[in-house]
Amino acid sequence: MIRDQTIYIGPTLPKDGLVQNQVFFNGIPGRVYDMLRVSAALQRLLVPIHLMPAIRRRLEQSGTPEYQAYAKLAPGSVSIQNDEGVSNIMSSSYYDTPTQSKQINSAGEIVNPADTYEGDVQRVKIKATAQDVTLQNATTAAGDGKPFAPTDGNYTLTYEITGTSTSRTVVFEIAGPSGVFIPTTAFNVTDPTKYGPQTTGGSNGAPESWQVEVPAGYSFRARLSSVAGGNVTIKGKAVT
């Protein structure tokens, strides 16, 4: 298997019997292992073959440990020695195997995406699934309905107005920490020129969809200020 193969990506060292891009299968020869035990630079340049592309990128970046290791082993430099003061880099993340919870970022580092949320562009933010939201449920009389109040982040709420009513007025309102609701602007999903703090549309025959941003710690409601000839239902999805 490819993960049982190791490649040496340092300069050719005739005296030590190492050739650049030499591949070792099913383990490392004893003579090479003995050299690894005393050379931190050599350890950095003998890598699992499945990590080679990422390590080569680091090898080309001035100042990286791999770049410095190559310079130390280049012809004319001091012979193999443990000048980095490390006796076993082989057990470090260089020889860690990427799994579902560990991935290689563009810097050649093996990281766990769950460790950070957008710490940098190389890591992954785990997205929550869409949350079901009910603001009005077959309501037949004017009323505030049930507010949506996120606490774990900012949400985009997209909701649809339906029902059997022949007329209705829905007012979009938001409240901050004070708890006082005031009109807020929502945007029609299908008609970008249509926006505002209320609507008189929305029925089973001609549903309307709207969208609003709800910050963490705030509450949003779709208050039914009037309704006639049936009921009004307002349900949607909220995503971070």
> In terms of structural class, how would the helical and strand content be classed?
mainly beta
- Kindly state the percentage of residues in helix: 10-25%
The total of beta strands comes to 15
Name the average pLDDT: 80
Q: Report the principal-axis shape.
A: rod-shaped
CATH topology of the largest domain: Jelly Rolls
Tally of separate domains:
2
Q: At the first level of CATH, what is the class of the largest domain?
A: Mainly Beta
CA-based gyration radius:
31 Å
- Number of helical stretches of at least 4 residues: 4
Query: What is the first-to-last residue Cα distance?
Result: 41 Å
Largest sheet: 6 strands, antiparallel
Write a structural description.
This protein has 240 residues and is mainly β. The chain has 2 domains: 2-95, no CATH class; 131-239, Jelly Rolls, CATH 2.60.120. The chain is 12% helix and 32% strand. It contains 4 helices and 15 strands. The strands form 4 sheets. Strands 6-15-7-13-10-11 form a 6-stranded antiparallel β-sheet, with no helix packed on it. Strands 8, 9, 12 and 14 form a 4-stranded antiparallel β-sheet that branches. Helix 3 crosses helix 4 (65-73). The longest helix has 9 residues, at 65-73. It is rod-shaped. Mean pLDDT is 80; it is low at 78-100 and 119-124.
